[in-house]
Amino acid sequence: MKLSGRGRGCCVAGSRERGPPPRSPFVHQLRLSPLEKAKIAFMTLTLFPIRLFFAAFMMLLAWPFAFIASMGSDEQELEKPLSWWRKIVDILLKAIMRMMWLAGGFHWINVKGRRALPAEAAILTVAPHSSYFDAIPVTMTFASIVMKAESKDIPVWGTLIKYIRPVFVSRSDQDSRRKTVEEIKRRAQSDGKWPQIMIFPEGTCTNRSCLITFKPGAFIPGVPVQPVVLRYPNKLDTITWTWQGPGADCLNVKYSWYNSVLCMQFLPVYIPSEEERKNPVLYANNVRRVMAEALGVPVTDYTFEDCQLALAEGQLRLPSDTCLLEFAKLVRSLGLKPETLEDDLDKYAASAMKMKKEKVDLKEFSAYLEFPVSHTLESMFALFDENEDGIIDIREFVIALSVVCKPSKTLETIQLAFQLYQSENGTIVEEDLAHILKTAMGVSQINVTHLFRAVDEEEEGEITYDDFYRFAELHPHFAEDYLYADQLGDESGMETSSLSAPNGICTDFSPDNTEDKNKPLQKKLN
């Protein structure tokens, strides 16, 4: 597969086309000098315990106020204006929460713009979402948020959460997403009776290098929203906490004497057009463009699902510049459904094994997929047209689709690839392994010599899948030992961490059927 501007998604800021983002939005690289590492170690033993104690104390101090104010509050009571004593409690809780952030090192928080009234904008859309510290706007505004239902059962924290009247999403209820959107719509159309709802439409944390695709849930009600943009100006970015990278939220509290949110900026209220009211995805994209222009960053079509693909816990960790993210986007745009993707994979794999030739042109590729030639199909074809000679190896498409379909099941993908590439006696050579692994990782070149020689213990110049499987069982980290060490490297300077779920304040509640199937793709650059 190609790895170039032509093989990756473009980003757009406003009306100006730009190249791809400089790095994956889901990876945070942090290089620390020996002196900085020593400083972290020192502050971990000195300042960090003090900050942790005061933050916990402030939360415990806030708990009785939130508990008393939440007692006996039925839905009709919640829709009424706050009584005088609850207004006092509100002020006290905001002051306590501000002291908690002060204890965490946030001495200065600058706010620009005017926060709209609930009757003017029932929903606040906040981006970019890059840290647990993005909870600061929540504690400053006490706007309602979308939370996992399990959060309300957490001691102390659950009481504080319930005080801001969140919209809960239940994992156990299969219909929960639809109910959540309906509840947001009901509150948003209540003419300002309910508190504003604050939503992080990206649905996951990024490194703030661009704005990824907004989930449409916040825009389905079709009511005016107020965009809110966040900026962190620290020289050393110890704020960002992405799916791959150091645990910067904790690192920030350990490392920095103080930090400041340069700007929590309230932008003008965005009033949707009639077309945007009918099309939540269009509405979301236009609001995202306004926010990107205010931030001076590009937008990209990467999504939360791409984050899950890029950081799946398989034996092959995808590099940050993999073009499989672009491929996954094209798969969705083509109309292949996630719920039927495994069946589609089986069908395409069986068809590829029966084909008399591995190389096909665009017309044959269209017939193979049973999709008409379109801009999306041409873009997908271009990803695999490595030599730009108008033909592709259909086996590479099957391998890439297997990775997208089963990102954490590396050996299943490799077994399928062996079946596609093996000779009559069930073996492959080093060149075949290179084709398999570079496609499975979405890179243009890869050196597999060390890995192949390690698997080929008998030095026969060919291996079977059983050979590879036995090797992988004995060396589960074979990719790190034989691939990444030589060519990908670890540029972060810190150990990386991988998480299995987004944090609690950006729960994905958007219905699954709100994909924009007709959205045109950005034209690729050479």
TrEMBL record:
<dbReference type="GO" id="GO:0042171">
    <property type="term" value="F:lysophosphatidic acid acyltransferase activity"/>
</dbReference>
<keyword id="KW-1208">Phospholipid metabolism</keyword>
<comment type="similarity">
    <text>Belongs to the 1-acyl-sn-glycerol-3-phosphate acyltransferase family.</text>
</comment>
<dbReference type="GO" id="GO:0005509">
    <property type="term" value="F:calcium ion binding"/>
</dbReference>
<feature type="region of interest" description="Disordered">
    <location>
        <begin position="1"/>
        <end position="24"/>
    </location>
</feature>
<dbReference type="InterPro" id="IPR045252">
    <property type="entry name" value="LPCAT1-like"/>
</dbReference>
<dbReference type="GO" id="GO:0047184">
    <property type="term" value="F:1-acylglycerophosphocholine O-acyltransferase activity"/>
</dbReference>
<comment type="pathway">
    <text>Phospholipid metabolism.</text>
</comment>
<keyword id="KW-0472">Membrane</keyword>
<dbReference type="GO" id="GO:0008654">
    <property type="term" value="P:phospholipid biosynthetic process"/>
</dbReference>
<keyword id="KW-0106">Calcium</keyword>
<keyword id="KW-0012">Acyltransferase</keyword>
<keyword id="KW-0443">Lipid metabolism</keyword>
<protein>
    <submittedName>
        <fullName>PCAT1 acyltransferase</fullName>
    </submittedName>
</protein>
<dbReference type="InterPro" id="IPR018247">
    <property type="entry name" value="EF_Hand_1_Ca_BS"/>
</dbReference>
<dbReference type="Pfam" id="PF01553">
    <property type="entry name" value="Acyltransferase"/>
</dbReference>
<feature type="domain" description="EF-hand">
    <location>
        <begin position="372"/>
        <end position="407"/>
    </location>
</feature>
<comment type="pathway">
    <text>Lipid metabolism; phospholipid metabolism.</text>
</comment>
<dbReference type="InterPro" id="IPR011992">
    <property type="entry name" value="EF-hand-dom_pair"/>
</dbReference>
<keyword id="KW-0594">Phospholipid biosynthesis</keyword>
<keyword id="KW-0812">Transmembrane</keyword>
<dbReference type="GO" id="GO:0016020">
    <property type="term" value="C:membrane"/>
</dbReference>
<feature type="transmembrane region" description="Helical">
    <location>
        <begin position="40"/>
        <end position="68"/>
    </location>
</feature>
<dbReference type="GO" id="GO:0005783">
    <property type="term" value="C:endoplasmic reticulum"/>
</dbReference>
<dbReference type="Pfam" id="PF13833">
    <property type="entry name" value="EF-hand_8"/>
</dbReference>
<dbReference type="InterPro" id="IPR002048">
    <property type="entry name" value="EF_hand_dom"/>
</dbReference>
<keyword id="KW-0479">Metal-binding</keyword>
<keyword id="KW-0808">Transferase</keyword>
<feature type="region of interest" description="Disordered">
    <location>
        <begin position="493"/>
        <end position="526"/>
    </location>
</feature>
<keyword id="KW-1133">Transmembrane helix</keyword>
<dbReference type="InterPro" id="IPR002123">
    <property type="entry name" value="Plipid/glycerol_acylTrfase"/>
</dbReference>
<keyword id="KW-0444">Lipid biosynthesis</keyword>
